[in-house]
Amino acid sequence: MSESPILAREELSRAALGRDTAVAIGVFDGVHRGHHYLIGRMVERGRREDLATMVVTFHPHPRLVVQPQTALTYLCGLEERIELLRALGVDSVAILTFTSELAQLSAREFVSLLVEELRMKLLVVGADFALGRGREADAQALEAIGGEMGFAVEEVGLLTVSDEKVGSSATRLALARGDMETVASLLGRPFDLRGPIVRGAERGKSLGFPTANIALGLDRALPAFGVYVTRAYLGEGIYPAVTNIGLRPTFDEDKTTVETYILDFEGEVHGHELRIELLHRLRGEMRFPNADALKEQIEKDIAAARAYLS
């Protein structure tokens, strides 16, 4: 048996609640409705059996460690993921740094860490869950290990909508189409982007539509390029907005930007944090012959956004 990774043991020890615990494990990227369902079941059973409840989430995504050539983006940032998980009523969220050392552990070695550090008495998993080196142990195999180690396993069935599994893959596909209504129905909330506002080329300002550019990490999942009806959260205010995501082909730029024109707002935005909810895709990205044609289209986009929001 390999030695348990010291980092994982320390991280679990720091998160431990000092009492018998029900645990759910996974990446939980996007914290979609399928995750809500599974974690809700854990919280419900934990209360019934007088167990503390904890979510153990991996970061970075295990796939990026096991298959480093994989291009993978996150549906939400780590801070947002923790915030969303806590909002589901769990007692604690533990972030486990996923390393190549952790990837080498057998299922038995990994769950023994949870038993020793978290006093795990219940492990709640989804129907497609597998754990350990090479995804060796499914719910049935974990149940056998639990019988020896003193913890129960509950397998929660998959949540489906119109016979389709509610999951990260379905959410990514809808996002890639720019179908924000489907994304919202899978997540249980509108898809959002957040980050500090940074100075851009200020082309919007020269056209009479000053925009706020959000700085985002390269690992953040984005919807199909185009123009979106959005809701902007700036300071204490909530404003209607129009957001362009893409390369700005009219100006031959090659860097992806997320720029938001906040309607009914005047004031300085630089240095502030902005969160936008993407509600509806108005159109795809377009190249215009000149700035005047672009300005005319922006005015149409604003009118269409107002009509949608009303």
Q: What would you note in describing this structure?
A:
The chain has 310 residues and is α/β, with parallel strands linked by helices. The chain has two domains: 156 residues, Rossmann fold; 118 residues, Elongation Factor Tu (Ef-tu), domain 3 (Beta Barrel). 35% of the residues lie in helices and 27% in strands. It contains eleven helices and 13 strands. It has a six-stranded antiparallel beta barrel with strand order 8-9-12-11-10-13. It has a five-stranded parallel beta sheet with strand order 3-2-1-4-5, with helices on both faces. Strand 1, helix 2 and strand 2 form a beta-alpha-beta unit. Helix 8 packs antiparallel against helix 9. The longest helix is centred in the last third of the chain and has 19 residues. The N and C termini lie far apart (62 Å). The model has no long low-confidence stretch (mean pLDDT 93).
